[in-house]
């Protein structure tokens, strides 16, 4: 990285002091990643071929001493459950889910106890004593069974520890703490058997008690040397957390009573340009990081250098910033190395597997026997991008949507998809034979999906990598379950899957030594860069917040020398300041939002840099906000092309409906999409009956009830007869309109009752009218009428047609009725002036009822006409007739003058719609 990087210094020491014994030298580093960079540093300093020293991470080194294989947290949980069952009475045994809730925390505590070489019996009995003291005042007779169990749990902790330790040791496997404790036991034998080997420990900061003991033993037996990377700024400040551990080691290790402490450097106080940048939200940080990198490239090229980014690192305080950052990088970046894995949370194969779990676990919890699946779960899977192109289920999806299937039995689903594909059968195979068959089915499914993807297509190749990552996890679970068959609940499997999936990161392939380095905080250990860009510099992210996931209280940890949040913060502080130690240009980016997701106060590290500002540091602070455009949105304007005009002529020939005319008034763009482009709404399952569906059901019921009376006068007995048919007819219409939708419970049952009530109330009003002497004759029900407008102002004749709900003759007057299930007031059908009728959407109901009167005028044969609305939510108001209100005169009869004025307004509107020079312009509502 920089000319005097820490690894360059280590390489110099290896060549100067260990040249003759390099093949017998083992270099131990804090992580695996630094190995490649150390080899590169060695390459630069030798002219001839040499045998490289062995370079390993500290974890691998300790594992070699102990001779025990490490196991992952899930396998450890399974092993612990085996031990738990073997030492717990059957009556007291908990299910795996309940056990896992406390076992994970307990295992973390066991791990800490072992890493710090504490006496487990002392620590665990200490915890039991604390709990006893807490319950001190409770009389024996008042102790409930629950409380007894609680106290027994603390008594059992030493037994759990010893049994698990012995069980794992017997199998030759272990968690990190156990391996460290065993390595300390084994260190004498190890150092004696490798007396000709030399060890070099480099770049460490925080060491646990086991690591301290191992390293000090090897140093004391003259087999090892340790090189620290300690800056005097932090080492000499007794309060600076970046030097907390190194100060302790310098003071407490016997070795340093007689030998010098190597190395203390003075790099942090050198000239540095530190820019602190605040910006709202996560994406803003990614965009700023991208623009900083673009500026670095441009500056480098303008100075005539090659513009490479080898000495530039982006350190992400939060891993979910990775994808936004990759999209924000300039195309001139070239070589790139990403040390972080791509999180499995967004892996498409993982999302599909999680959806499968959701669908099947829900089906099992509803009714394992009938296996009822929820339509959203089914459609989520069938429309998933890894399934949809290969499952051949578009017809099934359409059937579910059209028929309003909400809950579908497994049998019915198989019936609806007559010729299922292989992938369909794997997706919907019942999960009722236990965990291993379920995992094997998922494994087969992932293999089938992988087989569908091609190696020739770059995108599909990447998808294959994602699928393979989940396939490995599923196979790992099969392996676990085959060893622990008694843990066999699907719910447990789902819980374990959710935990394991976090380990299933997809690694990026890159050139580790070339180009821009993108990494997490821990990956930056031991490495040095000239330019460092750090994101998510907020409290809770950088440093991470306090998380007390332990049964051991804070004061006990302090007393026993276990790490607390103070030590964890000190580790983060060291990593942060080490990043800055040799860097010349530093950019610290934070989220200015203090509330909401991914937010928090500005990091204390920024404040610390400002307060403890070094003489040679230039520190600037800027806030970047996105530039807001002056106009948030430009309304759409669509000119009328030749094809649009042809379509308009076609509509004019087939007929403009009142709803088409009012949709133009509401928003010309809506008219353009619906009528010109013929874009209809996506058909979806109507889980709860929509208002328009309810309206259709009421319309259709009234039509069927009144059909026998067309061309007849209605009598009281006719209406009374209709009352008897309401229940049957409404149910029948529900089945016809709402198809397979559920109407026996929930909101739909209420809607069903509302429909019956509306029809019944309507009939009551009708009955009352007949009793009051009204003579009502039904002329037409749900009938379409049409009429051509020929007018010199129109480019061609226009047909107006409308479907009228009901036309009747009442006491010698023709009455045209439009049913509305919503609430309509008298004002909605009252017109005061013809001016602006077609400009205001509030006049939509007047335009509609007058259109019906206009198309029916000839059929009325000179009889007076009324047109209006019956609102089911305002039945008390009765028939709301259109009326023209002039000064104090109200006219409800639609005469020639009214229809003439209406026609004039319609021609004005239609000539605008059909004028090729007037574009469709969006109305912003």
Could you describe the 3D structure shown?
- This protein has 925 residues and is of the alpha/beta class.
- The model has no long low-confidence stretch (mean pLDDT 89).
- Strand 19 (776-789) and strand 20 (798-810) form a beta hairpin.
- It is elongated and about 120 Å long.
- The two termini are 58 Å apart.
- The protein has 34 helices and 27 strands.
- Strands 11-14-10-15-16-9-17 form a seven-stranded parallel β-sheet. A five-stranded mixed β-sheet has the order 19-20-21-23-24, sandwiched between helices.
- The longest helix is centred in the first third of the chain and has 27 residues, at 145-171.
- Helix 4 crosses helix 5, helix 5 packs parallel to helix 8 and helix 6 (120-134) runs antiparallel to helix 7.
List descriptors.
925 residues, alpha/beta, 34 helices, 49% helix, elongated
Give a quick precis of the structure.
The protein is α/β, with parallel strands linked by helices and 925 residues long.
Please give the structural blueprint:
Layout: H1 6-17, E1 25-29, H2 34-45, E2 54-57, H3 58-66, E3 69-70, H4 73-87, H5 96-115, H6 120-134, H7 145-171, E4 173-174, H8 176-193, E5 198-202, H9 209-220, E6 224-227, E7 230-231, H10 232-235, H11 244-252, H12 255-258, E8 264-265, E9 272-279, H13 281-302, E10 312-316, H14 322-328, E11 336-338, H15 348-367, E12 372-374, H16 375-382, H17 388-391, H18 394-402, E13 407-409, H19 410-416, H20 422-427, H21 435-452, H22 458-483, H23 490-500, E14 516-520, E15 531-534, H24 554-560, H25 565-581, E16 585-591, H26 604-611, E17 617-623, E18 637-638, H27 642-654, H28 658-666, H29 668-676, H30 691-706, H31 716-738, H32 746-771, E19 776-789, E20 798-810, E21 813-820, E22 830-831, H33 844-856, E23 865-871, E24 879-881, E25 883-886, E26 889-891, H34 896-913, E27 920-921
Parallel strand pairs: 1-2, 1-5, 3-4, 5-6, 7-8, 9-16, 9-17, 10-14, 10-15, 11-14, 15-16, 21-23, 22-25
Antiparallel strand pairs: 12-13, 18-27, 19-20, 20-21, 23-24, 25-26
Helix pairs in contact: 1-2, 3-8, 4-5, 4-7, 5-8, 6-7, 8-9, 13-14, 15-16, 21-22, 28-29, 28-33, 30-31, 30-32, 31-32
